[in-house]
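Record 1 of the preview.
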Amino acid sequence: MSELAVILYFHPRKRKQQIMGETRWQVILNPNAGGRQAEKDWPMIKEELLKEGFNFETELTQHPLHAIQLVTQKIKEGYRKFIVIGGDGTLHEIANGIMSQNFAKPDEILLAMISVGTGNDWIKTHQISPNYIEAIQQIKTGNTIKQDVGKIVYKNGSPEPEIRYFINSVGIGFDARVVKYILPRKLKGKSNKSDYIKGLIRSLFTNKNIKSLLQIDNEKVETKIYNLTVGLCKFKGGGFKLLPNAIPDDGELDITLASRISKRKLIASLPKIFGGRVEQIKYFDFFRVKELILDISKPVCTEADGEFLGHYPLQVSIIPNQLNIISNYNPAK
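->
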């Protein structure tokens, strides 16, 4: 008997599990997504997946950051194809699980999205349909892109820096303050778009310019941050096109900086922000970089993919072409 035959003979269960994991989809469902809309719509989505011939297992998230644990364990078990059912926050956790595990290279994982969140910003860049049936057809078609992944180093109440990966964008200042205000309801699975509008209005009256020194690649910029958006994809905050020039696989971070801006000027700029014309706002500056280092004069709200991280951002950088994603991305649109 050959050495290979001996291995197969004594480890049949392990080999079967690996083959199953590689060929079957693993669905990770966040029942709280979209104000628990995901839980309500799951039977319909499940029926459509079965109708279209998908072979899959399902895991439900049970608490914040649980998806990180789930995807890590499933990759360890041999799964390489994942369907995320939830919102940008769920996708954020899945991306962090893929990037932080050591059982497979990130680009060996195939990642697909059926979006049931509140903001649904990431799918807008990738032109993934919010319609469940159409999204499933897009997964079945199988067009892919290797997307970049962002990395933020920050502090959150402890002396040692922490790391979080992001797949859409990071917000520092105004954006993140809105996220902080809606966080309590989000943790209860009760957030909706009206909560975001309320948080936005509240932030208009409480957010302030923060004195900062930014190192943008090799250039140093002294400024006052009202809002700093750093990202890989174009949309954030429930559909605002704050990073109009972002390309998800170009190996660079896009930055939109609103600096030294008053509340009056910001309110006057809202029609252009809502209309996707931020590049026409003269108080905004735009950069394209590989690394951003921040020296902030005092604590400032910070979020990644709509998940609140605290008040001490240190560094943002990019890791090119990491995630193999089902996408309809078309740079011409």
